[in-house]
Amino acid sequence: MIDETKLIEKMKAGNQHAIRMIVERYQHHVFKVTYSVVRDQEIAEDLAQEAFIKMLDALPTYQHQGFKTWLSRIALHKAIDHQRQKKRKREELHTFESFHPVDKKLNVEEEVMANDQIAMIQKRIKQMPAKFQLVVHAYYFEELSYRQIADRYRLEETTVKTRLYRARKWMKENWKEEDFR
C-alpha cells in the first residue's frame, strides 16, 4: 500500500493515478459520512462525488494534519449544505404555494382568478428593487435553476442564491397576504 502522504503530494502535482487511488481508498468512508446525513443512497453517492471534487479544489490548502478527518469534514459539509438547500426549497414552496395554482383542472372562473393573481404578483414584483426582479421572475415564473439564472445574467451562482434570499426577505417585510386577495 502506497503511503498516504506520497499520494497526496502526487495528487497535488496532478497525478491522475494517485487521485484514483485516494478515491478508491476513501469512497466507502465518504459515502457513509454523506449517507449518515441525507439517508438516501442516490443523493449520498452524488454528494460523495461532489466531496471528492471539492477535495481536489481544496487540496492546495490541506495542511497534512489528518487527511481522512479533513476529507470527512468536506463530505459532512456537502451533506449539510444539501439538507439546508432542501429545507430552503420547502420553505420557498410554502411561501409561494399561493402564487402558483396547484390544480391543473381549473374551471374558467378559477383560471381567470389565478391569472389575475399572477398578474398582480408580477405587478408587485416590478415594485421590488431592480436587482431582485430579474432573479425572482426567472426563478418563480420561468422556473430556471440557480445555475441557469447565473448563466443567463452572467452572475455567480452564490449571487443568485443571495439575491433570492434577500428578495424573499424583502417580500416578507413589504408585502401583506391581504394585498393578494
From TrEMBL:
Pfam families given in the database record: Sigma70_r2 (PF04542), Sigma70_r4_2 (PF08281)
UniProt key word Cytoplasm: no
Family matches, as CDD domains: Sigma70_r4 (cd06171)
Domain RNA polymerase sigma factor 70 region 4 type: 120-171
InterPro entries: RNA_pol_sigma-70-like, RNA_pol_sigma-70_dom, RNA_pol_sigma70_r2, RNA_pol_sigma70_r4_t2, RNA_pol_sigma_r2, RNA_pol_sigma_r3/r4-like, WH-like_DNA-bd_sf
Keywords for this protein: Sigma factor, Transcription, Transcription regulation
Keyword Transmembrane: no
Residue ranges constituting the RNA polymerase sigma-70 region domain according to the UniProt record: 22-88
Family: Belongs to the sigma-70 factor family. ECF subfamily.
Name of protein: Sigma-70 family RNA polymerase sigma factor
Origin species: Gracilibacillus salinarum
